[in-house]
Design the sequence.
């Protein structure tokens, strides 16, 4: 029995790290920013944490803090030019940002190990630590959602003119969403570095972007449950269909096409909408 | 008493003059009308006041505060709320949530508390929920509180938008064609709400092209055509002004 659980532990670890990254993607979409830069922030955080441990030999806690802060710093920096763009242009700009980070990473070989990657990172993070951070991230997203910030993000996403006319500063809130996104990505990138022994620059490229985006689109963009469920489905599914595990990206692609066509709001959001509508209908029936 | 005051307000889009030297005063406690045929530049003026369009020249003051070049979100904080010509509710949100967002200007919990979900933030959400619900009561909308806003009838959506504007507790309210597409019963109900706003001390600027409705409600009316004020005064004066009649009905000589 314990053997079976141990066999699935790496998968669970992957889930916990990717949940954090999914939340990083979720929070910017929530605030109406079509940024896809999470993969880049995760890379920045991971390499910062890795370099702190390998080159400087510092304690992992300091490395993680540094990863979080550099991820956040990069996000705040990027939010300044992005505030002038909207929609698909933001998406294009952030994809470009990912490529820039990737290239810089490969060129600065003395610092990051270049194309060879960063190796021999001491493994200091296990399932327990990952679980604690994933739980904290989930809690924070949940807290944001039900308070002042969640309301402001919702208004901005749905109609910027309305949000501004009600006194909501769009620039300030979108920058804040970016900062949270960058910090989360940096933190979970750092965790990945201390969990995986080695980092490869291509790990934080286009492939990761698509993976993270799929979690949020599949699960749902408007509740904290969305990324949790989306991430679970997309990580478990290829394992259940082991013969197809080689073609993970094909499965992702097919699922995305199906979801976008039939449940465009994502699985959790669609289910919640249905439950809400049913509750209202039942109430109407008891009244009449 | 504070006043919303537009002084020599002008807007040019390249060579096109959308408004030229417009002077309007909205004192607190009064309903002031701004009328004009389609394309007269009414919405341009609203958008300049609310900071959605940059002003070419002239000034806008709320009381002593100059808001001519303030960004849109600061104008709300100066005490100005608006409704939109095409109703703009947050479609995914419920009626109650739509009104809650209107309280944004008065939210006090810190960003830190909101991030960490401290009790302070939770209490604020609970209070706002109650306040939003009681505000819905004033508009007879409590029964719809949990419904998605986009599913309501036109008249009800308009009232939700009004309630949202009221939630920010403004000193001045701009109503951009609030009764367009409404029947007489619905528009009369809104007329009462507007009078109530004025008697509670708020200044109301009513932008409409339904002349009858404006004449009934407003103590003072401005008439706009081709971006310029062509007449102003009481409803009797304005409606008998030959220039106003020709702007609305066309010039008799060309008929």
Sequence:
């Amino acid at each position: 029995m314990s053997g079976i659980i141990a066999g699935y532990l790496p998968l669970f670890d992957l889930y916990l790290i990717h949940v954090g990254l999914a939340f990083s993607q979720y929070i910017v979409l929530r605030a109406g920013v079509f940024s896809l830069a999470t993969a880049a922030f995760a890379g920045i955080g991971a390499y910062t944490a890795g370099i702190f441990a390998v080159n400087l030999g510092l304690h992992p806690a300091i490395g993680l803090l540094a990863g979080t802060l550099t991820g956040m710093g990069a996000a705040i920096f990027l939010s300044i030019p992005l505030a002038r763009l909207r929609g698909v242009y933001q998406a294009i700009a952030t994809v470009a940002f990912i490529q820039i980070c990737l290239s810089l990473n490969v060129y600065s070989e003395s610092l990051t190990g270049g194309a060879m990657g960063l190796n021999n990172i001491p493994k200091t993070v296990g399932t327990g630590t990952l679980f604690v951070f994933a739980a904290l991230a989930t809690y924070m997203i949940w807290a944001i959602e039900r308070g002042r910030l969640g309301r402001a993000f919702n208004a901005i996403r749905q109609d910027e003119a309305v949000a501004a006319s009600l006194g909501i500063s769009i620039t300030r809130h979108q920058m804040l969403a970016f900062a949270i996104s960058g910090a989360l990505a940096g933190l979970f990138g750092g965790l990945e570095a201390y969990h995986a022994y080695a980092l490869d620059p291509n790990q934080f490229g286009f492939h990761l972007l698509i993976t993270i985006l799929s979690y949020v689109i599949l699960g749902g963009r408007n509740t904290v449950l969305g990324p949790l469920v989306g991430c679970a489905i997309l990580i478990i599914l290829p394992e259940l269909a082991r013969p197809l595990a080689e073609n993970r990206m094909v499965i992702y692609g097919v699922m995305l096409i199906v979801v976008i066509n039939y449940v465009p709001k994502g699985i959790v959001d669609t289910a919640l909408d249905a439950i809400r509508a049913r509750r209202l209908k039942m109430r109407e029936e008891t009244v009449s | 008493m504070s006043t919303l005051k537009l002084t020599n307000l002008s807007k040019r889009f390249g060579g096109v003059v959308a408004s030229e030297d417009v002077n309007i005063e909205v004192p607190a406690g009064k309903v002031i009308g701004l009328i004009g045929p389609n394309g007269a530049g009414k919405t341009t003026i609203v958008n300049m006041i609310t900071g959605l369009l940059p002003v070419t020249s002239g000034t806008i003051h709320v009381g002593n505060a100059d808001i001519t070049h303030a960004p849109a979100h600061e104008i709300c904080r100066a005490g100005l709320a608006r409704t939109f010509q095409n109703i703009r509710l947050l479609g995914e949100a419920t009626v109650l949530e739509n009104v809650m967002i209107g309280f944004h200007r008065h939210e006090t919990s810190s960003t830190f508390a909101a991030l960490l979900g401290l009790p302070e933030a939770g209490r604020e959400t609970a209070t706002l929920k109650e306040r939003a619900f009681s505000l819905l009561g004033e508009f007879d909308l409590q029964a719809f509180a949990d419904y998605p806003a986009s599913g309501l009838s036109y008249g009800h959506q308009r009232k939700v938008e009004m309630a949202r504007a009221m939630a920010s507790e403004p000193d001045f309210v701009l109503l951009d064609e609030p009764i367009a597409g409404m029947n007489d019963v619905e528009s009369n109900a809104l007329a009462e709400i507007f009078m109530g706003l004025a008697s509670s001390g708020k200044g109301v600027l009513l932008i409409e092209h339904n002349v009858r409705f404006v004449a009934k409600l407003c103590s003072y009316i401005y008439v706009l055509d081709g971006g310029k004020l062509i007449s102003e005064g009481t409803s009797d004066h304005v409606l008998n002004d030959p220039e106003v009649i020709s702007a609305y009905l066309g010039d008799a000589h060309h008929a």
